[in-house]
Specification:
The protein is α/β, with parallel strands linked by helices. Helix content is 37%, strand content 13%. It is globular.
Amino acid sequence: MVNCKQSSLIWLLAALLSGCASVTNLPPPETSTDGTYQALTTPIITLGDTQEHLSTGFPLHDNDSAIDAYVEVAQRPPEQALFGRRLMEWVLHNHAEEPFLHLGDVMDLSCRIEADRMNKIFKAALQTGAILPGNHDGLMFGIYAYGILSKNGTGKVIPEVDHWNKACMRGAGLDDTKHKTDNEAISKRDFIALYIAQHQKDSRVKPQLDQPRPNGRQTISWRSSDPMAFLSGIEAELIDGNLYANSYIAQRLKLPRALGSTRDTIIIGLDTNQAGLAVDVMDTLLGHSPGDLGKINPDQITAISKWVNEAKIRGDIVIFAGHHNWLSINLASRALLFNTMSQLDHPLVYLSAHTHTGFWASHKNVTGRPVLELNTSSLSDWPLAYRRISFAYDEVKNRILVKGDLMPRGVAPTLTDADLLAAWNSQTCGKLASVPLDKIQNEDKSLVKLQRDSRGSLFEWMVSWLTPVCPSCEEPLYQHALSYQREMLQTLLQVGRDLDIKTHQLNQVKLPGFCGSKGLADCAKSLLNEKPTDFKSSTDLFRRTASLVANLNDHLDDLTTPDAKNYMTCRAVQAAKIDYDLIDNEISEHRREKQRRKNSFFIIEASVGMN
């Protein structure tokens, strides 16, 4: 019999193995653009893997800095946890006239506060858009499908679920009851329900969507009455209990027509995360975590078939999209999907994310029919990038041309990592009125190095993990977590100095009660200078530090001046690139520019025919 802790270790090791997997040696796309192509659509923006991460909850072994020394990226630089969401905000703000498609992994740990923070940005966006579920949107760290409402027969929540919920408690201060509920973690069903509820409140959505129920099984089938609507259809199945990961939402998106186009172009946005009950035994033995391997059940295939059949009758072009890259969808699901796709008499295109590296590839089914894939890279790890995509069609040759500008870009297309960094720098850091780039780079180099140097050892982590459950056994974990909180606190103090603490009202943030009569700077410095002497004082200091960091992090969402937005976006970019440059693990070779170049990362257009 395997006990809970041994079982969790098996799961984590499986996750680590899958985390080491890389996307290499992909079949190249056809880059020929010969033909008479008629533009089908105006551009849309695709982005993905923003992975907003709550870092101030109770610490977890799964996110410990010791793992980060061996598996990138278990723990990202503190700047990503504080400023990373501003990258998505910047993208949406700078393409306000173009619809967006988020290809999944909005969240990281899958916490309610992560969803709330990202929802603020989506609600402030001026353009219409859609979000596909990623494996991190409803699974813990994207790899654990723990039943949030599960009981172990005694009426108590099982330990793994309790850990997940505690990790999602914003600010670990014991006096904060607002964020200490039993419903801080978000399941797959919760994610879909929250997403539909936001569209249900949107007056532009006609007819109004059904209100998702808080629990129980629910089927939602909706079609827009607006012929110009971007989000034009939803098919969803909400399932709670242990099978919540079988929930799905499929979306029909109608792209804006290009001038002169005579047919519509539809994107069918798939939910590739029907992970089921945790993970199949065979997947575990093969080293696959439930989130790393995509899965689409027959019920979803049946639901989208009516859209495919309608498009075939109307002569529409259908593009498919999902979070997982094509080869990360399990073979059975791929076969089901291809069978549906192959009913169309035009070439096949698939848009994806998940890999964090980005690429173009051409996959062939056993029939020899190709599928052109464009994989959008991450906005949480380098290479930080997104795509500006449009489609064209050659009626005579029956070929589709996909244009996918690598963004951001300067006057000329982005052809190297240096070009990509230069584009970010000129369009964010270069617009700062108060802080020079070299000052930001020096701050971020120091912080990223500090974060990496303070990581524990894997041996220490394994000993802590395998020891019997007891408070003092968690001491190394809390020590590492405290180091990370201190690094974030130092980053926040830099924000005050760089942007002026009074101008941006950081000095007016409500401080936790333990600060007493001290101001922000004095309270923060006293926490940074305090030396814990035992496990109790170490955990207490961690909780107080996390509580202050959480308060300040919330305030960052209220900074709306252009200078503050550019500053935070700039720092997220610099930290990601610096962290990437410091990686020396062989397992990360798939992220290197040389390998990405082999996988056509810098290509900006490709075409596909029928065979």
